[in-house]
C-alpha cells in the first residue's frame, strides 16, 4: 500500500520463550478504521504496543507514519493518539485539567490548549462536567474523556485498545458515535476488540487474530460471505432431549455444537427450522439470525471469541 500509515512485515513479539505475535503482515491505509479482532491473548494488544512505540519488536519490520519505531519513537508518538485498554486519567485533577495538562506535554501554548480543551469537551459531551473531579464520573464518561485526551495533539493516527470493554450498551453506542465522527473527519483509527458487533460497526477492514497469527483478513461483509452462511439457526434443548450433532448435520450446510446450544448454518433459517420440526426434534427454543463475525471466528478457530 503506497498510502499506508502502518506497514508491518513478519512482525514478531517475544516475551522470553513465549511468542505473542508470530510473524504477521499488516497494512493500514490513510483514513480507514482498521480492526484487530480476536479473544484475549490473541496478540492484539502486543501488536498495538509495538505500533504505539512503547514496546520494541522482536523481529520483522514495522513502519509507522513512514518511520521506524525503533529509531523514531519520539517523533511518531508526537503524531499519534493512544487510548489504552484501561483508563489512566489523573483522578486528582478536574475533567478540564486532564485535557489541558496533557496538551502541555505536546508543547501547545496555554491559549491553544484552552481552546482545544473546550473543543474536546464538547466532542466528548462533557462540557457541563468540565470542572468536576474525574473520580465520580461514570465508566462511559471516563472512557470518552480518555478518547478526548488522546486527540489533544490532533493525531494523524488513533490507536484504541478494547475501547468499550466494561461499558453498558448505551455508553458503548455513544462511544461508537464519537468514533464514527472522527472517521468522517478523516482520522485513521486502529481498533482492537473481542466484540464482533463493535468490529462490524466500526471497521472498514480487519484481521482476525488467534494465537499470535492472522487467520483471515477483509471487510466484515467479505469475511462473513467467505466463511459463513447468510443465516444461522440457534437451537437449545432440554438436557434429556438434546440430540447428537449428527442428527442435525443432514439438515443444513454445517452444524456447530456449543455447550448450551447448536448452531445450524444455512441460507434459509426458517426453512431449516421447518426441517428440524419435520425430523421430530423438539428444541426448547429456536432463533434465526444473520451470520456475524462471531460465526467467522468459530469457523476459523473452532471456538468462540469470548472463550
Short structural description:
Its main location: membrane. Keywords: Antibiotic resistance, ATP-binding, Cell membrane, Membrane, Nucleotide-binding, Translocase, Transport. The chain is an alpha/beta fold.
Describe the protein.
This is ABC transporter. InterPro entries: AAA+_ATPase, ABC_transporter-like_ATP-bd, ABC_transporter-like_CS, ABC_transporter_ATP-binding, P-loop_NTPase. Belongs to the ABC transporter superfamily. It is found in: Cell membrane. The structure is a single chain. The protein has 307 residues and is an alpha/beta fold. It folds into two domains: 4-218, Rossmann fold; 229-290, Alpha-Beta Plaits, CATH 3.30.70.980. The protein is built from eleven helices and 13 strands. The strands form three sheets. It has a six-stranded mixed β-sheet with strand order 5-6-7-3-8-9, with helices on both faces. Strands 11-12-10-13 form a four-stranded antiparallel β-sheet. The longest helix is centred in the middle third of the chain and has 16 residues, at 169-184. It is globular, with a radius of gyration of 22 Å. The mean pLDDT is 93.
Helix content: 25-40%
What is the total domain count?
Answer: 2
- Our Rg estimate from Cα atoms comes to 22 Å
Overall, the morphology is globular
CATH class of the largest domain equals: Alpha Beta
Order of helices and strands: EEEHEHEHHHEHEHEEHEHEEHEH
What is the β-strand count? 13
Major β-sheet strand ordering: 5-6-7-3-8-9
Number of helices: 11
* Percentage of residues in strands: 25-35%
CATH architecture of the largest domain: 3-Layer(aba) Sandwich
Low-confidence stretches: none
Write the CATH homologous superfamily of the largest domain: P-loop containing nucleotide triphosphate hydrolases
Amino acid at each position: 500500500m503506497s498510502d499506508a500509515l502502518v506497514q508491518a512485515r513478519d512482525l514478531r513479539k517475544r516475551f522470553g520463550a513465549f511468542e505473542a505475535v508470530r510473524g504477521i503482515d499488516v497494512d493500514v491505509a490513510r483514513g480507514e478504521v482498521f480492526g484487530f479482532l480476536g479473544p484475549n491473548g490473541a496478540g492484539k494488544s502486543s501488536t498495538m504496543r509495538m505500533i504505539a512505540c512503547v514496546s520494541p519488536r522482536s523481529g520483522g519490520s514495522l513502519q509507522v507514519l513512514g518511520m521506524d519505531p525503533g529509531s523514531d519513537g519520539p517523533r511518531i508518538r508526537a503524531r499519534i493518539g493512544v487510548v489504552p485498554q484501561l483508563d489512566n486519567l489523573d483522578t486528582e485533577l478536574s475533567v478540564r485539567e486532564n485535557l489541558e495538562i496533557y496538551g502541555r506535554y505536546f508543547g501547545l501554548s496555554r491559549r491553544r490548549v484552552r481552546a482545544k480543551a473546550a473543543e474536546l469537551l464538547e466532542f466528548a459531551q462533557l462540557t457541563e462536567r468540565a470542572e468536576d473531579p474525574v473520580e465520580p464520573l461514570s465508566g462511559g464518561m471516563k472512557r470518552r474523556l480518555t478518547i478526548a485526551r488522546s486527540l489533544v495533539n490532533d493525531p494523524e493516527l488513533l490507536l484504541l485498545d478494547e475501547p468499550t470493554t466494561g461499558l453498558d450498551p448505551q455508553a458503548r453506542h455513544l462511544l461508537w458515535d464519537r468514533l464514527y465522527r472522527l472517521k468522517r473527519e478523516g482520522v485513521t483509527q486502529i481498533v482492537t476488540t473481542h466484540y464482533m458487533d463493535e468490529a462490524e460497526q466500526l471497521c472498514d477492514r480487519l484481521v482476525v487474530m488467534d494465537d499470535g497469527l492472522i487467520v483471515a483478513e477483509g471487510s466484515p461483509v467479505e469475511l462473513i460471505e467467505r466463511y459463513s452462511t447468510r443465516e444461522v439457526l440457534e437451537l437449545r434443548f432440554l438436557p434429556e432431549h438434546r440430540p447428537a450433532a449428527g442428527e442435525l448435520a443432514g439438515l443444513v450446510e454445517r452444524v456447530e455444537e456449543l455447550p448450551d446450544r447448536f448452531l445450524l448454518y444455512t441460507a434459509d433459517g426458517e426453512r431449516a427450522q421447518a426441517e428440524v420440526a419435520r425430523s421430530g426434534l423438539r428444541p426448547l427454543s429456536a432463533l434465526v439470525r444473520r451470520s456475524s463475525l462471531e460465526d467467522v471466528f468459530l469457523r476459523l478457530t473452532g471456538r468462540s471469541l469470548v472463550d
